[in-house]
Amino acid sequence: MLRGIKRLNRYEKRLLRIAKLGGKLVKINQAGFSRRTDEGFRFPIYSLEIGTKEGLEKHPVGITAGVHGLETIGIQILIDFLEYIISPKSTGYLPELKKGKLGLVIIPIVNPGGVAAKTRSNPGGVDLMRNSGIDAEKPLPFFGGQKFSNKLPYFRGHGLEPESRTLSRTVFERFFHVQDSILPVLDLHSGFGTVDNVWWPYAYTHRPCTDTALYEKIASHFKDHCGHINFAYGPQSASYTTHGDLWDKFYDHYQELYSEQESWSSRFLPLTLEVGTWSDIKEEPMKLFSKKGIFRPAEHNKSEVLTRYRGFLRDFVRLGLTKPKDWIEAQ
Ligand SMILES: [Zn+2]
User: Fold this and answer.
1) Cα dihedral angle (155, 159, 164, 169), rounded to 10 degrees?
2) Any signal peptide, and if so, which residues (predicted)?
3) What is the pTM of this model?
4) In the CATH hierarchy, which top-level class contains the domain 2-328?
């Protein structure tokens, strides 16, 4: 546990430094608490708001990481990215944040209890990306989520965990009421496969989601216009289906609220970046059970891994500068 807690402290220190660097533009909030550990401790879950009031209210873009406690590579990619864009001296500096044209809503560590304990699941043994309550069509056995025991991986839990509720509340409050905007949210993970995947909904079904055409356009934009050709773009279900994906739940909730309102132009667009860590679960299924296993890349190329995603994340964030009509009319 100690090493995990030290790691968590290290990340939190860097986040405080980012807040200091950003001055008035950065606010750190406590968005919620983790599930209680066996020792009775609840970890605070922090969110960062970066930008002016106008930028955050009208053009919010979300990035989250650390849903799975072992996937610390996503947390480090996110922290590296924030350092890259926040300082006016940096080559990646994003002036739009100061100008009120963009606002970032960040939850850097959704599952701090998992990071501290070095577990994929939260302190209750629940896999948060199996926790939404949605049932999948033909999920991968076991890996797709199970209801047998919290002592085994991929446990779905009973009802939404505190971490899932914190994420849900933040997404709802920050994104669901914003009018006439493109509302992209990226969740950083690592583990599956040998390539980097950029997934859009759904995880639970092969049925295409309402915004499939728009997502495909965004994927072409990333590939052809921004040059991010080393990513595999597509619905998550093209890789595998799972029970309980939280983004499926949020996406469907948004559709329920607005899909019948013709005057509603905003688009809520969750995406998952799954950083490939070069092993194949089909060839080495036992890696699913090993602690370090598939969730972390080999040590030697770690720092290169962190900075490799700066350009992609920057272009992702800049989607928030576009308007729904920019995409829809050109279709
Ligand atoms: Zn993950």
Assistant:
1) 170
2) none
3) 0.93
4) alpha beta
